[in-house]
Amino acid sequence: MDRLVTVAFSPHRVETLPFAEKLMSQHDIIILEEPPNKLFQNFLKEEISIEEYLKNTDFWFPTFIKESLKILRGLYKKGKKIFQVEPYLEKVAFIQKELENGNNIEKIINTPELKEIYQVENKAIGKLLEYYKVSLKDSFENIIEAVKTFSKADAERFRLRDYLRAQAIIKLLPEKGKVYIEAGTIHVYFKKLLHIHLGKTWRISHKYLLEKVLKSLIGKAWVFPPGELLTLRYILKRKENKEKENLLAARSLIYIKIIPKEELLPTPEEPFPHLKKELKAIQMVDKLSFQDCAKLYKELFFIKNNEESEKIVEKYLKSNIIK
């Protein structure tokens, strides 16, 4: 009996899509990391256009979304079953709509399936706002503490999100088959949960979609920016290491200033623009000490342009670290 679950770790980047399409085509069922949309099946059946499906929808990477939808429609035509499963985000959207419609918070809190999600989400947003407030006026040490406090709240949110998604997917699995599960790179705990609950009856595999490219560049199958490494420590409940956590938090503040926020599209000359930018940024900040980050943070704080920030960090590295 063929029972295979493949967790495909990938960021939402156009450059990952050829690898995703190839791997998805080798599976019977595809489970996407997104809340259900009532129009999704209509789209797959070509009853509505991409434009109509995406109407009134907010998304960060428009080209990625459109190109991935084209791929999914093609796979659906070939007989693949495709589902959207992300219960945490689905319920967060429901809570937001309830509040926008003027419904009472007490009603949400008194609903068992919503209470924990509301509390965890509210806590994470609150800690993020606290960080923003502290970042404007406090010492670098206090800012680092605020980063770590938010990261811990974010980790709590990720653990609940991964747990709910794992439970939902387990209920959805057929008696047998090959199942592809889309997951962001930070969802390592999700994979762990699948191993715990399915490991005796299903073969659980995982793949970083860009691992071949990464191995050719740095000899490793995966790489995480400092902020994700910090959050992963808290998600996986690693033993506290204040010095290491402080350094990751400090480096994350510099990393977010030099990494581009806009969608970068692959070209024949540069097929992996996001990956190359991220690798360069990670390699740069990995050379910085806590004190280096403190100095650079002040200089970069009011700079909005990531390329300008990158040049400042490069100059700093050449004059202070690289001999």
Helix content: 55-70%
Distance between the termini: 59 Å
Number of domain units: 2
CATH uppermost class of the largest domain:
Alpha Beta
Query: How large is the count of helical segments?
Result: 15
H and E order: EHEHHHEHHHHEHEHHHHHH
The shape, in one word, is globular
Compute the number of strand runs: 5
| Uncertain stretches | none
Under the CATH scheme, the architecture of the largest domain is 3-Layer(aba) Sandwich
Query: Beta-strand percentage?
Result: 5-15%
**Helix/strand/pairing class, anyone?**
alpha/beta
Question: Average pLDDT value?
Answer: 94
What is the CATH T-level topology of the largest domain?
A: Cobalt-precorrin-4 Transmethylase, domain 1
What Rg do the Cα atoms give? 21 Å
Query: Order of strands in the sheet with the most strands?
Result: 3-2-4-1-5
Biggest sheet layout: 5 strands, parallel
Describe the structure.
The model has no long low-confidence stretch (mean pLDDT 94). The longest helix has 33 residues, at 140-172. The protein has 15 helices and 5 strands. It has a 5-stranded parallel sheet, with helices on both faces. It has 2 domains: 3-87 and 164-218, Cobalt-precorrin-4 Transmethylase, domain 1; 219-323, no CATH class. Helices cover 60% and strands 9% of the residues. The N and C termini lie far apart (59 Å). By secondary structure, the chain is an alpha/beta fold. The radius of gyration is 21 Å and the shape is globular.
